[in-house]
Amino acid sequence: MSYFVSALVIGVAFGGFATQSVSAKTETRTVVVRAATPGPQREVFGFALGSSLSDSTVGYPSWDFSLLSTVAYFGLHVQDDGSFAADSDWTTWNSSALTNLVSTAHSHGTKVVLTIVLQDFNPNTPHMCAGLINGGKTITNTVNEMKAKGVDGINVDYEGLNGSCGTSNPSWARDDFVNFMSAMRSNMPSGSYLSVDTYASSAADPVGFFNVGGLNGSVDSFFVMAYDLEYSNYARPPTSCSSFCLGPTAPLGGYYYNDTVIASQYVAGVGASKVILGVPYYGRKACVVSGSPNAVPTGAVTADTYLDASTEAASNLVLSGSYNAHRDANDPAGQERWDTWFNTSLNCTRELYWDDVTSLSNKYALIARDNLRGVGIWNLNYGGAAPELWGALNTYFSCPAQISVAATQNTTGITVGLSGGSCSVSSFDVQQMDTTINTPWASLRSVSVTGSSVNAIADGYPGHVYQFRARSHAKSGVVSGWSYASTQVSPSATKARAWSGLYTLDGFGGVQLDDSPPLFDSAYWPGWNIARAAKPLPGGNPSESGLVLDGYGGLHSYGAPAVSESGTQASHRWGFDIARDFAFLPDGTGGFVLDGYGGLHGFRVNGNTAPLVAVGGPFWGGWDIARKVVIWPDGTGGYVLDGYGGVHAFGINNALPAGASQVAATSRWGFDIARDIVLVAGNGGRSGYVLDGYGGTHPFHPTGDGSAMPASLSGVSYWGWDIARAMWLEPGSASVGYTLDGYGGIHPFGGAPAIVNSPYWPGWDIAKDLWGS
Fold this sequence. Notes:
Elements: E1 2-10, E2 13-14, E3 17-18, E4 22-30, E5 43-49, E6 70-77, H1 88-93, H2 96-107, E7 111-120, H3 126-133, H4 135-149, E8 153-160, H5 172-187, E9 193-199, H6 212-215, E10 221-225, H7 230-233, H8 259-270, E11 275-280, E12 282-288, E13 302-305, H9 306-309, E14 324-327, E15 337-343, E16 348-354, H10 357-369, E17 374-378, H11 380-383, H12 387-398, E18 402-404, E19 408-411, E20 413-419, E21 425-434, E22 442-443, E23 447-448, E24 453-459, E25 465-474, E26 483-494, E27 502-506, E28 511-513, E29 531-536, E30 545-550, E31 555-559, E32 565-566, E33 579-584, E34 590-595, E35 600-605, E36 614-615, E37 626-631, E38 637-642, E39 647-652, E40 663-665, E41 674-679, E42 688-692, E43 697-702, E44 724-729, E45 737-741, E46 746-749, E47 767-772
Parallel strand pairs: 5-6, 5-17, 6-7, 7-8, 8-9, 9-10, 10-11, 11-17, 19-26
Antiparallel strand pairs: 1-4, 2-3, 12-13, 12-16, 14-15, 15-16, 18-20, 20-24, 21-22, 21-23, 21-25, 25-26, 27-28, 27-47, 29-30, 30-31, 32-35, 33-34, 34-35, 36-39, 37-38, 38-39, 40-43, 41-42, 42-43, 44-45, 45-46
Helix pairs in contact: 3-5, 4-5, 10-12
């Protein structure tokens, strides 16, 4: 939302004293519609294996690209001379499978990057040394391949050991890899994405292969390979095994190397915005002597993909009744899964440690708590289309709101359908704008969700077009981007409520909707509590436009069409805060502004210029005690309310009609506590109620016209302290309506329906007026 500030200069005479010229800030709001933020709210980075890239069951056709930020093709293997190996992955890279992956990803706004791979754990890492020595050729080849295939960046998976590589520098490999990454960045096109895969321990390792501090200036992100940790943890507490024993490949806590510590080390070393925490879509299993936790394997340890691990229990090789699932007691926060069963083919007890959606979700929650850049997945092919995996990613990283609304509305009440899809949602934010009159976005009340979907109810004016946007708050804490929908209210739509529009005025000039369509508020003073009253212009569709009064007496149009002052009368503008209220004439041609001393100052609007004079009204020179003004339905006069509860009649352009000057009221007080006055339908519209600051409503009527005192109202809220601010009766009603408290609460009485969408400022006495028609 953009704001443009102008000034209103006020300098007129008041009460015989020349006022000083001052400026009252006004603010015109221009609507800026921002595009939705699709996809994940943090990065979701997934590796794609070339070996099964186009497999319809586990490859890219099975993936939900709306939940992926980046897909890394894994990968092209670097040889000693810096060239790429002509293997099956090279063949896939140059096939239609890669072209189709890129096309599919880009159509969803997902980046594709090329992973170059060089892994060497041999003594003195000869292949790593040779690859780095020939790194210039690799950089040229990699950047050329990136450009040729139209991918968005490069991911570097160089895994090795630090060493001298035959030089006098014992850390030559570490240092030259930093230079290699810097040169890679320099040769890549501007805006390209560069990431590097690093060990879980690297942020705390001063002499290992990865110098994360040195790499930080060149890369956009670190993919932290925070898995395979069982091979480093087994000899340490809590397991303290004398030989390798099974355990979680990526514990959240509880073990020496764990995701919580790893994340904190990387945040301290390179900053949270560059850290992608890698998670495993696999586990490890082996034959064991007995199904106890952290058992020592009696045979080969093999990997189990997520799809294999999640279906082990259904295998025909599992002895009936032998399968048991557990959670790791050494890491209760992580809830890593471990299972045991008897395999009838191998004739042994099998034990499997793996990450299911429960333990993965706990890692996702850590990413949110530490505000990391995102999550990395090794690898997408291991999970394929498993809906629970995509649902967990949706809940923790995206959770887009699904919003639906009928194209045309036959009533002014608009039903907006909301759903979180596979995401577990706690609530939705919903906003509405009127594109016919170009209003700012107006917030509806947050909608809580108890099931998978919910409806929000909004309001519109006949003939207007509305745009809606919604975002979800997932139970995981992630807030989605905005989703959009639009509709038009039919020009012949029936009214869904007793009113066309009902609004609250805040002290800064904001026109806040109350179960009503949004309107444009043209005057706004942020941080300055100077707005005093607002009223709709009578006639036509009166709720759609009107005026807001500031404390200096300025009248400002809201809504559309605009209301403009006309004529030469300017006696209602002053250089200090003394304006208290105003009222329109019934025909909408003008009205009166009330000052705090009781003075009534006529004004005209929309080209009308005939003079207006208040006759016989009250005046308390120098005493700021006048509070409200109302005008009778026939336009011959009205009332001024003083702070003690006195109701004082006045005539308009003529003396008061016979029998109208004396007013009987049920209550008057010896202190300033009267806050509002309303007229009721019937009795010529000269009877009504006074609202006191505690919430009490007190009837009054003229004594000379034979009218009866209005009945006491039922169900009116009462606080016993000065917080009631305004009162409003439904059109045509003498007993049904609402009271407004200073915090913005709207309280029905007389059987009026509760208000759903309205502002509320708890503990802040900023609500000023309640009006509608």
